[in-house]
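Reminder to self: C-alpha cells first, then the designed residues, so the page reads top to bottom the way the pipeline ran.
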C-alpha cells in the first residue's frame, strides 16, 4: 500500500480535481507520480516513476488519468518518438480509446487531447489545451507542468513565465507542492531577463523547501546570465547536499557548476565534473537532459581548445541510437555535435538527411515545420564549423541569431550556439566576419559584464590585425 500522505479519490474531489476511478490506490499513485515529476526525483520507496507506472496499471488499467500521466511523462522526456516506437504509439492510442469509451470529466478529456497533440509534435496546440484546463482549474499541477515543459521545448519564454503568473494567486501555502511553483515562476522570470525578481522568488521557494533542485537550478541560471561566476560556484557548493538527491536534475545542476569552471578557464575542474557526474549520469539514465548536457560541455571545452576526443567516442555510443528520433531540434543539434566530435560522418549525414526528409512534409509537427528555416541551417552551420569552413558557418548562423531561441532550451543552454558564431567569425578568412566577431564580443560584454570567458574572447578578437 502507498503512503497515506498521497491524495485518494475523496481528497482529489475536495480540491475540485476529481479523477474518474473508484480506486483510492490509483489516485494515490497518480499523486505519487505527479510529486516525483515536480520534484525531479525518483522516490525509491515507491519504486520510482517506473515502479509507479506499473503499479497504477495494476491498480486500475482503465484509469484514464493514470494513462495520461504515464504516457505523457514518457513523451515529455523526448527520449523516444511515437513515430518510431510502436509501444509508445500504442500507449497514446489506448489512452485516446479509453477516454472515448468512458464517461469522464471535460477536464480529463482535455488532458487526453493535449497529450495526443504533444505526441504528434504539435507543441503549440498542446500548450493551448493545457492552458484551457488551467483557466477553469488553476491548481491542476499536471497541466501546469506539462505546459511549462512544452513552452521550454519551443523556447517560448514569455508564455512560460505568464502561464505560472496566471495561476499563482489561486494557490495557497497549505496546498501540496505549493512551494515548487516558486521555482517554476523563477525560471520563467529569468528566461525573460527579470533577474532580480527571479532570484527573490527562487529564494522564497528554497526557504520553504531547501531541497527544491529546480529552484536551486534557477539561481544557477541567474548567476550564469549575470556572469556572477564565484557567487554561482559558491551557491552550488553550499547546497550540493540538498539538490544532489534529485536524481533527474542533479546531473544538470552539476552541468551548471561545470559551466562556471569553463567560464573561469578551469578546464580540468570542468572535465572532472563531466567525468564524475554529467557523463556518468548520462550513461546510467540515458535521459535526454543528461545527454544534451554532455554534448554541450564537450563542445564548449573543445571551442576553448581542450582535447576531448576519446570522450566524444564514448558519448556517441549513447547518442547514436537517437539519430532517427527527431523529437526536438534542440536534441538533434546536440546529437550532431556528438557524431561530429566522434568523426562518425555516416551518422552525421543520416541525421541531417532524416531531418531534411521530415521537413518536406512536416504536417502539424511544430519542430519539423521549424526544421526548414532554423533547424537544418543550424545543423549545417555546426557541420561547417566542425569541418573548418568558418566562412559558411557564419553565413548560415548569423542571420538566424535572433531565431535560435525557437529551437527551445534555455538562454544558458543556447549560449553554446552564440559562442560558436563568435569563434567561427573570428576564425573566418573573411575580413568582414572577423570585424563582426569583434562586434559580437562587445555586444556579449554589454549583456553580461565581467565575464572571464568574454574577456578571453576579447583578447582573441584584439589579436586579429584587421
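Designed residues (466 positions):
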Amino acid at each position: 500500500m502507498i503512503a497515506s500522505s498521497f491524495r485518494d479519490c475523496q481528497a482529489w474531489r475536495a480540491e475540485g480535481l476529481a479523477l474518474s476511478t473508484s480506486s483510492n490506490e490509483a489516485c494515490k499513485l497518480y499523486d505519487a507520480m505527479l510529486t516525483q515529476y515536480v520534484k525531479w526525483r525518483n522516490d525509491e520507496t515507491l519504486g520510482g516513476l517506473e515502479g509507479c507506472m506499473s503499479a497504477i496499471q495494476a491498480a486500475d488499467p482503465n484509469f484514464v488519468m493514470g494513462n495520461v500521466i504515464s504516457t505523457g511523462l514518457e513523451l515529455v522526456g523526448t527520449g523516444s518518438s511515437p513515430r518510431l516506437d510502436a509501444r509508445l504509439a500504442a500507449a497514446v492510442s489506448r489512452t485516446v480509446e479509453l477516454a472515448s469509451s468512458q464517461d469522464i470529466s471535460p477536464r480529463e478529456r482535455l488532458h487526453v487531447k493535449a497529450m495526443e497533440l504533444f505526441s504528434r509534435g504539435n507543441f503549440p496546440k498542446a500548450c493551448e489545451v493545457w492552458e484551457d484546463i488551467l483557466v477553469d482549474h488553476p491548481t491542476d499541477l499536471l497541466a501546469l507542468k506539462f505546459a511549462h515543459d512544452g513552452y521550454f521545448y519551443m523556447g517560448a519564454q514569455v508564455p512560460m513565465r505568464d502561464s505560472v503568473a496566471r495561476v499563482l494567486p489561486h494557490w495557497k501555502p497549505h496546498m501540496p507542492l505549493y512551494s515548487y511553483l516558486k521555482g517554476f515562476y523563477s525560471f520563467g522570470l529569468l528566461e525573460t531577463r527579470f533577474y532580480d525578481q527571479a532570484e527573490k522568488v527562487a529564494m522564497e521557494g528554497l526557504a520553504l523547501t531547501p531541497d527544491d533542485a529546480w529552484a536551486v537550478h534557477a539561481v544557477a541560471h541567474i548567476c550564469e546570465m549575470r556572469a556572477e561566476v564565484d557567487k554561482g560556484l559558491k551557491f552550488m557548493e553550499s547546497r550540493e547536499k540538498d539538490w544532489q538527491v534529485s536524481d533527474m536534475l542533479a546531473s544538470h545542476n552539476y552541468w551548471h557548476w561545470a559551466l562556471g569552471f569553463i567560464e573561469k578557464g578551469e578546464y580540468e575542474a570542468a572535465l572532472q565534473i563531466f567525468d564524475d557526474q554529467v557523463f556518468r549520469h548520462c550513461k546510467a539514465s540515458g535521459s535526454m537532459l543528461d545527454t544534451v548536457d554532455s554534448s554541450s560541455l564537450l563542445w564548449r571545452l573543445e571551442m576553448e581548445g581542450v582535447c576531448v576526443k576519446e570522450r566524444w567516442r564514448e558519448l556517441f555510443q549513447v547518442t547514436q541510437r537517437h539519430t532517427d528520433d527527431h523529437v526536438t531540434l534542440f536534441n538533434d543539434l546536440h546529437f550532431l555535435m556528438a557524431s561530429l566530435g566522434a568523426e562518425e560522418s555516416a551518422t552525421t549525414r543520416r541525421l541531417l538527411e532524416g531531418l531534411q526528409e521530415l521537413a518536406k512534409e512536416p504536417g502539424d509537427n511544430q519542430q519539423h515545420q521549424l526544421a526548414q528555416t532554423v533547424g537544418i541551417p543550424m545543423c549545417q552551420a555546426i557541420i561547417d564549423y566542425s569541418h573548418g569552413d568558418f566562412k559558411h558557418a557564419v553565413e548560415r548562423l548569423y542571420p538566424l541569431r535572433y531565431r535560435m531561441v525557437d529551437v527551445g532550451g534555455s538562454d544558458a543552454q543556447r549560449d553554446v550556439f552564440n559562442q560558436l558564431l563568435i569563434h567561427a567569425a573570428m576564425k573566418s578568412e573573411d575580413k568582414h566576419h572577423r570585424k563582426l566577431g569583434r562586434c559580437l564580443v562587445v555586444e556579449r560584454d554589454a549583456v553580461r559584464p565581467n565575464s572571464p570567458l568574454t574577456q578571453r574572447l576579447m583578447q582573441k578578437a584584439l589579436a586579429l590585425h584587421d
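The radius of gyration is 22 Å.
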